[in-house]
Amino acid sequence: MPFLLLIVLTLQCESPFKTTPTIDGTILTLTAASSTERILHSALITISWPAIAIENFSRFQLARKDISLPDSLEPDWVLIATITDPATTTWQETIYDDASLRYRLTSFTDQGPGGSSEVNLILRPTTHLTIPTDVSSLVKAAASPVMDDDDTLFILPGHYIVSQLGADKRLHFIGMGGAVQTILDGGNNAQGSVLLMNRGGTLQGLTVQGGESDMGGGVKIDFAGLIRQCIIRENRSLLSQQAQGHGGGLYITGSTRVENCLILGNSAAGNGGGIYIRSSAKNVQIVNSVIFGNASERFQGGISAQKIPLHRPPSVTVINTVSRSNLGANMYPEYSDTVRARVIYSNTGEGWPTVDTTNVSGDPLFVDPANGNFHLQRGSIALDAGNPDPAYNDADGTRNDLGAYGGPGGDW
Predict the structure, then answer these.
(1) 230 CB contacts (<8 Å, ≥6 apart)?
(2) Radius of gyration from C-alpha coordinates of the chain
(3) Contact, 66 vs 98, CB < 8 A?
(4) How far apart are CA 32 and CA 9, in angstroms?
(5) Residues sharing a CB contact under 8 Å with residue 73, sequence separation 6 or more, in sequence order
(6) Which of 303, 299, 305 lies closest to 282 in space, CA to CA?
(7) What is the pLDDT of residues 44-85, one digit of tens each?
(8) Res. 410: pLDDT tops 80
(9) Domains of the chain by start residue, with CATH
């Protein structure tokens, strides 16, 4: 049974749908129905009207416009059908977006236009898709017309082979089983970053691995973003004719917050084996994370912050974070006297030239880093060593522990 969305009975002159009688005085009315209440892939739309006897009938013309656009963008009517059979009383089309539409049917005689009527089709917005339940392909789901800014892709546990995942939309990718069970894998095939955050959005509860690109093997963030409770591991950034191979795990050019994440075993032919922060980035925050075992073939294995001469330097804050055992320095700015960076309440080892008295040094005593267990052992110097502000407290209410399992979001 089709889902009836709206019926407009245009019987009064004050109707907002500009109904006018046909040549013989009959009122032309429309109804609109959809085959589904919520679009996942597509919907079959049926426009219908009563049988009307029109003398000297020439044709019906059916037009459509998108009324979900902002008022400042008045959409144009688009002619979608010309119907020459006067006995026709229905017309169907398949749509692939959850936009709200208005249809207008106009009758014509040999003398010109006669009556017309309009009807609105209002679909329930599709604000999320579940992968693979709603759409089997993660790439197709992200590119789907029904996915708009601030919509969400819920990803069920599984191992997904993807590359260049993303679109010019602000989407939220949420791993429903957490990062250990929900893996996005670039396949180590040099096809580009696993994920592209071109307009911001969120990554949460995902492992991103196996990406190979010349800028950001794992994730390239061109605008802004939040990366939370994720594992970014074993991605590579390669030299090319267009780029110098910076940012093995993350390549950041915009305002970004990385919290409660593990950045592990990534490598870069250029700078920033784990994370590369470009000069254009503003307000980058790395909070309660672990940057471990990353490598750079140049200078900065853990985190690299770039300052381009004559450009404003990036603004970076590293807090409650452990950066250790990275080849090519744990953290280092390319221009240490101009990069605006703070490293506080962290355990970073060698690298960053400015040492804050809130930082601690020494082995953080991870439980089993060789097998991916970065919880802290009893007696670790990183326990209760984070920012004492209650806003940073652990989930159990105690003072912040350094690393990926400390702070309010550390219970993953």
Answers:
(1) 179, 203, 204, 205, 206, 207, 208, 261, 262
(2) 28
(3) no
(4) 11
(5) none
(6) 305
(7) 999 999 988 888 999 999 999 999 877 667 788 999 999 999
(8) yes
(9) 3-121 (2.60.40.10), 128-392 (2.160.20)
